[in-house]
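Justification of resources, computational component.

The compute hours requested in this renewal are based largely on the per-chain cost of generating structure records like the one below. Each record pairs the submitted sequence with a full structure-token output. That output is archived, and it is also reused by downstream analysis tasks.
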Amino acid sequence: MKGKQVLITGGTGGLGSGVTPAVLAQGAEVTISYRNPKEVERLKNTFLPTDFERLHFIPANLEEEASVENLIHRIGRVDVLIHLVGGFSMGKTHEYSFSDWKREFDINLNTTFLTCKYSLKSMLEHGYGRIVTVGSKAALEPSGQLAAYSAAKAGVVALTKAIADETKGTNITANVVLPAVIDTPTNREAMGTENADKWVKPESLAQLICFLASEVARDIRGAAIPIYGNI
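The structure output for this chain reads:
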């Protein structure tokens, strides 16, 4: 990825803390979108001063189309999109509110659609692109109390595969990774640490994402790759 323009959405989150250093280590120019300036300041403390020559931050609300369009315009060219934005909430279907249902689709599926839409336009203009999205084990193996999350992530898988089919015959690929529980501070706080040693490490997931985002992965398109840790 040396010299490539890489957009990482959700780069200020727990998974982003593993993915961003791995992408920078490949020599890429990295832009991270953000909503909370405090998260940017926290993240900046984890990088070396030399990293900031290739690291840029742009505020954006990925749930609003105009904001996403402006983000891509400001970057100028997107060679690689790594879309990490997501979130989940739990609840039994008969008790789950419609507003929470819509929220799951907004943060997981709609942000994926908008960032893919405008990044893909840029990629098609200059004839190169790598799109990597993040689904979930729950997309393939839904479980109780995760209906909304599972359905939204299944949509991410379907969207990514559709893009891969649309871009056949080009030097643009789209693939999705399917992690089980990721070992992030947020998940440890929400779920405890009893089984954390079995969860997917952000660094492991980062290496898989970096491979899919690289030039050598040109023959992989439309893949949905499980990475379940030791669960």
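Helices lie at 16-25, 37-44, 65-75, 98-126, 137-140, 147-166, 185-191, 202-212. Strands lie at 5-9, 29-34, 55-59, 80-83, 129-134, 172-179, 224-227.
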